[in-house]
Write a structure and sequence with these properties.
Chain C: Keywords: Cytoplasm, Exosome, Nucleus, Ribonucleoprotein, Ribosomal protein, RNA-binding, rRNA processing. The complex is a heterotrimer of chains A (223), B (232) and C (298). Chain A is α+β, with helices and mostly antiparallel strands. Chain A contains four helices and nine strands; from the N terminus they run ββββαβαββαββα. Chain A has a five-stranded mixed beta sheet with strand order 1-2-3-5-4, with helices on one face. Chain A has a four-stranded antiparallel beta sheet with strand order 7-6-8-9, with helices on both faces. In chain A, a hairpin with a 2-residue loop joins strand 2 (27-33) and strand 3. The longest helix of chain A has 32 residues, at 187-218. Chain B has four helices and 16 strands. Chain B has helices at residues 161-168, 173-179, 201-213, 221-231; strands spanning 4-6, 11-12, 28-29, 33-36, 39-42, 46-51, 56-60, 73-81, 85-89, 96-103, 119-128, 131-137, 149-151, 155-158, 184-188, 193-198. The N and C termini of chain B lie far apart (49 Å). Chain C has a single domain (19-284), classed as GHMP Kinase, N-terminal domain (Ribosomal Protein S5, domain 2), CATH 3.30.230.70. Chain C contains five helices and 14 strands. The radius of gyration of chain C is 21 Å and the shape is elongated. Classes of the chains: A alpha+beta (223), B alpha+beta (232), C alpha+beta (298). The interface between A and C is medium-sized, with 35 and 34 residues.
Chain lengths: 223, 232, 298
């Protein structure tokens, strides 16, 4: 059954990315799934305050800000996700006693905002030229009241969903680096979501490559 | 295939592919590559480059934040003066140390007098992730200043590190195009800072704008300079 | 959190030398404002404005709340601005910097206290239900003159915003979804625009007849860091002065103030037209949906 916006259940919305979107930040990317857009800025390695300095590794400081209102519980949850994914990707040992600031700003939320935020974070870390172990790619899905798995749900689909899931996979082993689920679901359903999101993540990784090729061409590195 | 776009985490095959290459030579990994157990991994996204004969491999990419590397020229700003040394901001995570003796002809009695806030052109003489970087204003092999030292007057602009590398290449298009119309001198740091000075205020502004705006322009440098000249 | 150092001696001296010749280091003349770009949508009330490289996003939203007991017929209007490390690595979250306080206060004065939004029109049911409109301002890139850029973003967001339509029958209030009925624009009394100036001392008695007097409009980040004084003039399209703020800095002769007001009035009218045009162009295209500006992230 096609969805309201004409997509099939496993089809994702068109991805978009503006790399180097901000002048001041060391790395910045605006990533979007359709109308859902998140901006992420990365600064680092920069000087760390004494109390957060770690002798053997860089400290990661993540901030997430919603577009409307002050950061609440949900924003803190997304912030923690950004922190986890950034720490998992960064080779922090190569820049000891420094700080890497990751600031994500929701620009518009039309569903799957967490996945868009994590992808913006991954691309911004890459844009900043920081040493990375791997680049993660996140995809969200929702299980509709009828039990159908909808990949990359819209805000409307999220609202009436029975459960929501976000998975992130890295590009080397294709293994899961992040997973968050809410709602009521069975183990089989979770496994089905995992497989669908993993297939989606491969598309996100392919998108990263196209985006990087374009950036290198614009900078005159690739002829 | 030696030239391709790689994402962080991807493995790179650095094994010998041709019989002409001396397999006993060690493999040298440049920026963006790292050895992880038996494999070589990319840690940065960019274009993989290689000199297969010399077994050198590196990744070409652009960024804005400077991480000090040995021997690179940098433009720094003096942030504090101490008895034996200056603390210099070079745009990295930690401020660098410049010994008062690391100048041409400096002795205990005759040492340079540089004010806080002054700009200097120096060479990175120590770069280690666990230590504060150190600078020197002389070439260690000859003991001569060779252009390093305090940068007086002029103006400073910032640009991406990749653009700075391009400016340092001999015959950089924008500098050649500018040089046909305006006399100027400049000091390009690998840390994304360019100090420049021309014979008059309008010419300095023109040079600064031309260099800033030439980022991302590779063929139309002459047109850009002409356009800016008309605006004066 | 990296520290920001004072500009170098070379930069300071060159900026001042250039100003003596009536020139600015980015190639502008003293009264040039950097290029302004306005992006609106996709949701109602979402605006992103760039002023040169300075970039600010503003998002207007509305919720239904109970009015304050002393003002039962009035809706509420709130402004919220926080400088995150996105704008500049030197900003810390959770601790208001001096700059943040200053920008917030000028914005409050310019938009809220000049009563730009007609709060009485936001009343749904006296003493029971009113609209609370809030605008969240997000500074994305800080390259100087945040105040002017943020005001433009807030004004654009307010003009672009549509709140859901309501019907009141007796005590019953129905809030219509965007699909049911066309949403309603906000009633604005006037459109305030801030124009900021930076002043530079030359150590000599000011000579106002000279074309190279030390005053620049729309200061860049470098000029802001080097300035001896600043002033922000808020004007509207009726050529009225709405607010004027000068927080310390070098003293100014009265005629200099008057000149700034005149300059601001002219420039303010240009900017208002620019924003109006951008809003008109987009509103005819905007499709409803996508959250419609009602808070989802709470």
């Amino acid at each position: 059954m096609p969805r309201k916006d004409g997509r099939t259940t496993t089809q994702m919305r068109a991805m978009s990315a503006t790399q180097g979107a901000l002048e001041r930040a060391d790395g910045s990317v605006r990533f979007g799934f359709g109308d859902t857009q998140t901006m992420c800025a990365v600064n680092g390695p920069v000087e760390a305050r004494l109390r957060e300095e770690q002798l053997d590794r860089a400290t990661v400081e993540a901030v997430y800000r919603p577009i409307i209102g002050l950061p609440g519980v949900r924003a803190k949850e997304i912030e923690a996700a950004v922190q986890t994914v950034a720490e998992a990707s960064l080779l922090a040992g190569l820049h000891p006693r420094t700080l890497v600031q990751v600031t994500a700003q929701c620009m518009s939320d039309a569903g799957s905002s967490v996945a868009a935020t994590l992808n913006a974070t991954a691309m911004a870390l890459m844009d900043a030229g920081l040493p990375l172990r791997a680049v993660p790619a996140a995809v969200a899905c929702a299980i509709s009241p009828e039990g159908e798995v909808l990949v990359d749900p819209t805000a409307e689909e999220e609202q009436c969903a029975r459960s929501q899931h976000v998975f992130a996979f890295d590009n080397t082993s294709q293994e899961m680096v992040f997973c968050a689920s809410t709602g009521k679901f069975t183990a089989e359903e979770l496994a089905a979501c995992h497989d669908l999101c993993r297939a989606g993540a491969a598309k996100v990784h392919a998108f990263y490559r196209v985006a990087l090729e374009r950036k290198l061409a614009e900078e005159g590195i690739v002829a | 295939m030696t030239r391709r776009v790689v994402l962080p985490g991807e493995t790179v095959d650095v094994s010998v592919t041709s019989e002409d290459i001396d397999a006993t030579q060690p493999v040298r990994l440049g920026p963006g590559l790292r050895q992880a157990e038996a494999e070589v991994c990319a840690v940065r996204g960019g274009q993989l480059q290689a000199q297969p004969e010399a077994r050198r491999w590196w990744i070409e990419s652009n960024k804005k934040r400077y991480v000090p590397a040995l021997g690179e020229p940098v433009v720094g700003q003096v942030i504090s003066r101490h008895a034996e040394e200056y603390k210099v901001d070079i745009g990295g995570a930690h401020s660098a140390v410049l010994q008062a003796m690391a100048f041409e002809g400096a002795t205990k009695k005759n040492r340079p007098n540089i004010k806080v806030g002054a700009l200097i052109y120096a060479r990175v003489s120590l770069a280690d992730k666990d230590m504060e970087p150190e600078l020197e204003c002389l070439n260690p092999t000859t003991g001569r200043s060779e252009g390093y030292g305090e940068l007086k007057d002029g103006f400073m602009i910032t640009c991406s590190l990749g653009h700075c590398r391009r400016l340092l290449r001999p015959g950089a298009a924008i500098l050649r195009a500018l040089g046909q119309h305006v006399p100027f001198e400049l000091a390009v740091g690998m840390n994304g800072r360019v100090w420049l000075r021309a014979d008059s205020v309008p010419h300095t502004i023109l040079t600064a704008n031309a260099i800033t705006r030439s980022e991302g322009i590779y063929h139309a440098c002459r047109r850009l300079v002409k356009q800016l000249l008309q605006q004066i | 959190m990296p520290k920001e150092f004072e500009p170098s001696i070379s930069e300071r001296e060159f900026v001042q030398a250039a100003l003596l010749e009536g020139k600015r280091v980015d190639g502008r003349t003293p009264y040039d404002v950097r290029a302004i770009e306005i992006h609106l949508g996709p949701e109602y009330g979402a605006a992103e404005v760039t002023l040169g490289k300075t970039r600010v996003a503003a998002r207007a939203s509305a919720t239904v709340v109970r009015p304050f007991p002393d003002r039962p017929n009035e809706g509420q209007f709130m402004l919220n601005l926080e400088l995150s490390p996105m704008a500049s690595a030197t900003f810390e979250t959770g601790r208001a910097s001096e700059e943040e306080v200053l920008v917030t206060r000028v914005l409050e004065k310019a938009i809220r206290q000049s009563r730009a939004v007609d709060t009485e029109s936001l009343c749904i049911l006296a003493g029971e239900k009113v609209w609370s409109v809030r605008v969240d301002v997000h500074v994305l890139d800080h390259h100087g003159n945040l105040i002017d850029c943020a005001t433009m973003a807030v004004v654009a967001a307010l003009l672009h915003f549509r709140r859901p339509d309501v019907t009141v029958i007796g005590e019953d209030v129905t809030i219509h979804t965007l699909e049911e009925r066309n949403p309603v624009p906000l009633a604005l009394h006037h459109i305030p625009i801030c124009i900021s100036f930076a002043f530079f001392e030359d150590g000599q008695p000011a000579n106002h007849s000279c074309p190279c007097d030390r005053l620049v409009m729309d200061p860049s980040r470098l000029e802001e860091r080097l300035q001896d004084g600043d002033m922000t003039v808020t004007v509207n399209t009726h050529r009225e002065l709405c607010a004027l703020s000068k927080a310390g800095g070098s003293p100014l002769p009265p005629d200099q103030v008057m000149r700034c007001v005149q300059l601001a009035a002219t420039k303010g009218a240009e900017i208002t037209n620019l924003i109006r045009k951008a809003v008109q162009d987009t509103t005819s295209r905007t499709r409803p949906g996508g959250g419609g500006g009602i808070g989802l992230d709470r």
